[in-house]
Amino acid sequence: MFDYIRYLKEEDSLSFEDSLDIYNSIFKVLDNQDDYLHELWEEVVNSALAYCKMRTDWNYFSKEEKQDKDKLRTSLHNTFIINLKAFYRRGEQMGLNGEWMEKLRLPEERKRWGDLAGYIVCFENIKAR
């Protein structure tokens, strides 16, 4: 079972509302027709999918499997962070609003960034209806 209320009390939590605000702010940036910006966003989504697949599987791995896959999980997480930062930097270079990044805080708060990956996958999935 997942206790969302308890999760929100954690210092490094990212609420559904904040993540939706970040996601919608990103889509305002994507109103721009820059092909490279859209390619970078696709890389963000693809890396979020890969990381979230691993993160979900993590719940069902044995202790040995977790030990075997820990470096890969970290690598997938790093890739998502790198891709999101590249997307942000491109928008910044273009003079687009990047205030959404402040809500993620520092990249050192890796759990928040990883949680955003999950929310992105969730929102993209629902948006596809």
UniProtKB/TrEMBL annotation:
Protein name: Uncharacterized protein
Originating species: Enterococcus gilvus ATCC BAA-350
Lineage: Bacteria, Bacillati, Bacillota, Bacilli, Lactobacillales
